[in-house]
Amino acid sequence: MSPTPSLFEIRTTYENFEGRCPHCGFWNIFNRVSDLKFTRPIAGREMACLNAACRKPVWLTNDRIDPAFELLLTESEEFWHQKRYMLCVLTAAQAYEVFFVAVVYTWLLYRPFPNQRDLKLFNELSKLLYSKIRKYPYLHMRNVLFQAVLEEMKPQTLDEAHTLIDALPDKSPGVKREEIVSRVRGRLREDLVRLFDSKVNETRNLVIHMHAYRPSRMAAARVLVEAKKTINRLKHDLGPDLEFEDYANAPPDAGYGGP
Ligand SMILES: [Zn+2]
Question: Which residues crowd ion ligand 1, with CB under 5 Å?
Fold first, then answer.
């Protein structure tokens, strides 16, 4: 235990670590990037209270370790309860996009890593993949996820992954609903079709472009409920482990091993 008293009533989000100072009661908001300069979960960290009249040391601990897309879903729900329906919709759409990226990184990079522990090549491929996808809009990134499933992009080694990453298209691959229906079976088909049918990006675009459209309570609820169901189910279909830490120290074949 640290002798420094901990922040209490902690609230942790993708961007911030918040809590109340045990000395003065001030609500501290530490931004992970700007204040903590650390974007991994905080195991334990001493900071000074942000209240200028206090400035006493406080201990940050008990951080959440959920993947980014799950933190964004939680935030989207919080926005809904606060009746901030525009932010609820924008954050739900962002959760989808962050989820697509997590799946593609996991399939193309994290899972082959235990079979070819070449950290230099891994970092090069990570940069290459990022340079490919950083400009992909929602539908392009979603279609790359569909393509990964339909074409069974399951590289066993980083060398195989390199070929697949090089071949990722500059234009969005056209994926038809019928392709998913005819080539995928069972629960995964049902979940991919639900994703295909989702109009979350159109609702998001209305909020951004159409005179800053304000969604109703019900419209935002539909987006949120659909996002939670679609992403949580697909996480189990396509993951469930979707972070590099899940594979970094895994034995060979852990990524695509098993039956
Ligand atoms: Zn304080």
Answer: 21, 23-24, 26, 49, 51, 54
